[in-house]
Amino acid sequence: xxxxxxxxxxxxxxxxxxxxxxxxxxxxxxxxxxxxxxxxxxxxxxxxxxxxxxxxxxxxxxxxxxxxxxxxxxxxxxxxxxxxxxxxxxxxxxxxxxxxxxxxxxxxxxxxxxxxxxxxxxxxxxxxxxxxxxxxxxxxxxxxxxxxxxxxxxxxxxxx
Length: 160
Prior knowledge:
Structural class: alpha+beta
Oligomer: single chain
Number of strands: 9
Low-confidence stretches: none
Radius of gyration: 30 Å
């Protein structure tokens, strides 16, 4: 038969462990509440802005009047957006950038707002034809000089 004095000796240890366990559970619950309350929410994703591609003539500085889906060697693609897309896009500065197949920046322009990209498409090059290959046009929203959001991206292949 167990001695009642043994139960009295283990009771303080059990009480201490119970108190520590309750304290640990309280800390975990408080931490979870703080994380839920302060966790940054993901920005609401909007659909990418529709990009229109035109052929650019470097000698005249003009773009063709109709859009193109494919380009041949010697043609310079230029990207613009439709006027109706400005309403869906952000306000403020944007950066329009062309990249080559290796990810190097081929041409970039900072614009005050999306309206500028409606009437003045951004060409892959303003000076000369570019070699055949794969290129990517990326339109980014800018805040404090830094890209904060990709608004549109389009892949363009210039065939030989």
